[in-house]
Amino acid sequence: MKAAVCYEFNQPLVVEEIHIDAPQAGEVKIRISACAICHSDIHLLKGEWGHQPPLVAGHEAAGVVEEIGPGVTEVQTGDHVIVTLIRSCGRCRFCTIGRPFNCAGDFKLDHESRLRNAKGEAITQGIKTGAFAQYAIVDQSQLAKIPEAMPFASASLLACGVITGLGSVTRTAQVKQGSSVAVIGTGGVGLNAIQGAALSGATPIIAIDVLDSKLEAARRFGATETINAERTNVVEAVQDLSDGYGVEYAFATVGHPEAIMQATRMVRKGGTTVIVGMPASDQALFTIDTHFITEGRQVIGSNMGSTRLLVDIPRLIELYAQGRLKLDELISNRYPLEQINEAIASVLRGEALRNVIMFD
Amino acid sequence: MKAAVCYEFNQPLVVEEIHIDAPQAGEVKIRISACAICHSDIHLLKGEWGHQPPLVAGHEAAGVVEEIGPGVTEVQTGDHVIVTLIRSCGRCRFCTIGRPFNCAGDFKLDHESRLRNAKGEAITQGIKTGAFAQYAIVDQSQLAKIPEAMPFASASLLACGVITGLGSVTRTAQVKQGSSVAVIGTGGVGLNAIQGAALSGATPIIAIDVLDSKLEAARRFGATETINAERTNVVEAVQDLSDGYGVEYAFATVGHPEAIMQATRMVRKGGTTVIVGMPASDQALFTIDTHFITEGRQVIGSNMGSTRLLVDIPRLIELYAQGRLKLDELISNRYPLEQINEAIASVLRGEALRNVIMFD
């Protein structure tokens, strides 16, 4: 099959023929139809997350079940599915308490790859998936079924960016109707945090970014107020927009320490800061002063928007079908696999919400 | 009346006659019967919290209502009460949502003092109280009634240390039966966090300190496991005691940045670190790495154990009467006001859980 292989960090991916094995027990082989480019792929391909080439990135995908391994019960050949990086065993002490996104189970796929290149070298499946390729083999728990009528490109976005942003609001923080919300960063994740706040009935919903064009997009996704951080003292501006005390919830969807620090400062007493954006590995994030204690604030890390695929994906699909969840609007451009380097360069230039690789 | 006045930081308090006014609208004058010495008093008297002398510290007190100001509805002359620093208006947007401990109301007592010395100088009422004195004037919201039979010294501890430690577990974190808990620091606040964990049915309850004698006390207050931090890698030891993953809740009851950092490391995925101990003003507390996000952890600042006096104090008094809440055991020594400097020195030497100043 064709795949876009990273042989050296920060160098163009090599689109070439590689070998993919058959799925083993509990595993499923998917024919990939669409795979979006997420910033986590960029981190991985820059070498910021410690994995070593050769590897295939891509983890925000949708496609069709091609072949199932022994013991697979949740999907059948021909099912349309999204392919996520949330691998869960269902039996560990995190899955058992309803946190499959923190699964501590051990999988063969944690240690083995089903990919080899023409020289016989093992190729790592990046971010537990490896979907910049015509096929991918993942654990059955990483899949969620979608209706056949749903476009693959739109569906692929549900696999990571949408649930990460939207879930950080609806699941991690469990924002309630009437809560005040600020979102720092209005990229793919930030827009979905805004969208989640709008769906939850939050008000005001304050979008913060440095580009007016992105803030306009934020308004389309539900922001009621916008702040250009280049021109304004962000913390004071947020306080002014939330009766002087700050918002109840602030979401940091970009990994810059400065943004995270601001997100801890702009919440009111008893307020919650949710850290959503992933910085490079091991980067120290922020410090908190004594006001954090006296004002009873909290900070939560949101992993994959605390998403339970089986529960959350069907509801998001319903909202999409009802016209209440924007997905198509997140897609900037579509590219064939052969043009993946161009697609990534466009993301790096900050031009795209989501660029999607489309397969035949 | 007699009061112990601080004229210079880090110098002995001066016990002298000073003048106290009559209570104004909504205010109550209390004849102090007992006032415990809390570490916050020490911070204040070292000049670490930015207030200026002359001032009277003392904020963990109990006594008898001597005189009520106009409009006071909640207590009557002769009522036995505890005197706390939680001043709440009942009408602001924090009181309204059940967070009186974050009250944003404005009080005359925030800007004025009812104390003057013989020279006519205004003397600040430290930590909203000023109870190292025979009388104190506070807002009626700072009081909670106690039964006449309850000893004042034991009751005084409910005003700050007990609710701060116990409430951080039962109210801020809302620990549930069967949860795993670690408590760093086993001073007055830490022992009460342990006591709160025991009352909540937590298991294991891991106490961490550097003195074996304090760890023995921790066992008496409900710790099921103890770790001497001088001899052990604390984070690994906690993980070993909680099936390898760490505890669900860790409470940092000492303000040292190192302890706080450990408390963020010893919780499992999805776990909660509660910061209870107050360091000196504006001291940066800690940094958090990317694991905080990927593992979906959270950090909460606990202000006064998120205590609602009207709800929580009567229940704690019931538990005390039933023999289920230890208060008497927290009292190390009793001193008359004239020996307050000796009582403080004993606290500074780490000898005391709580030293209590007793008035006639």
What does this protein look like?
- The structure is a homodimer of 360-residue chains.
- Chain A contains 10 helices and 19 strands.
- With 360 residues, the first copy, chain A, is of the alpha/beta class.
- In chain A, helix 8 links the parallel strand 16 and strand 17 (298-301).
- In chain A, helix 3 runs parallel beside helix 4.
- The first copy, chain A, starts with a strand and ends with a strand.
- The A-B interface holds A 93-94, 97, 99, 101-102, 104, 172, 243, 245, 269-270, 275-276, 278-290, 292-303, 306 and B 93-94, 97, 99, 101-102, 104, 172, 243, 245, 269-270, 275-276, 278-290, 292-303, 306.
Q: TL;DR of this structure?
A:
The structure is a homodimer of 360-residue chains. Chain A is an alpha/beta fold and 360 residues long. Chain A has helices at 39-45, 152-157, 161-172, 188-199, 212-220, 234-240, 257-265, 291-294, 309-321, 340-348; strands at residues 2-5, 14-17, 19-20, 27-36, 55-56, 60-68, 80-83, 115-116, 122-125, 135-139, 143-145, 181-184, 205-209, 225-228, 247-252, 267-275, 298-301, 331-336, 354-358.
The proportion of residues forming helix of chain A, as a percent range, comes to 10-25%
Spans of at least 5 consecutive residues with low confidence of chain A: none
Number of helices of chain A: 10
Alpha carbon gyration radius of chain A: 20 Å
Q: Strand percentage of chain A, roughly?
A: 25-35%
Kindly report the oligomeric state of this protein: homodimer
How would you state the average pLDDT of chain A, rounded? 95
The largest contact between protein chains, plus residue counts on each side, is: A-B, 40 and 40 residues
